[in-house]
Amino acid sequence: TAASVLLLRACLALLASPIYLLSFLGMWEPFCKKVFFPFILDKIAVMHDKKSKKYKQELFRNLPDFRGPSGELRLLEIGTGTGSNFQFYPAGCKVTCTDINPNFQESLSRNMKKNQHLHYEQFLVAAGEDLRQVPSGSMDAVVCTLVLCSVQSISSTLREVLRVLRPGGAFYFLEHVAAEHSSWKYFWQQVCYPTWKLVFAGCCLTREVWKNLEEAKFSELKIQHISVALPCVPIEPHIVGYGVK
Asked: Domain limits at 124?
């Protein structure tokens, strides 16, 4: 019930009261962005990669099919983070990395060194909703994993994706989403929502991202609902797939 959700939210906020206090004083966000989130994302990425590896291998298998007329594959990744997707991209792929947070350099450099089969074009500090530094129709593929949960606007981000893709290019996604509304998973997502969003740099637990994807103007869209279970975190339901411009 709504009352149980509010009561449990208050208990969780009490447990996280030091973070709420730091946030009130304007000190949490800069610390989170620079230190906490890059550190914790690195740890979560390792766990998540183990659980989602088979889905990512399957997802990115047809990436070479989207090479441009020149035979090159120009790929833009939104919210590159630590660069955990690099291992799945085909050899010779030209990668442009973007992230709103430039503080992932250490783990990003580590993953770049590990994946020297790719050409790294540039790193842009940019939000998914504003990719003005990327020319229209210049990309064969755009990739976005575990990012649409924290963008300001999913529909604006998808508009930018469609703008930068060439006709016939593809958008690949793997995102955690809201659980079935009648389930306990959804109940706990609602309980954790405000504190989770504060602690994890704006990450929203209850977005129904598949609806935004269905509303975007893709000529072809493949979405699969999957389960990626991580211990003690309310982000088990995921969607994975791709859309063609």
From this structure: 2-244
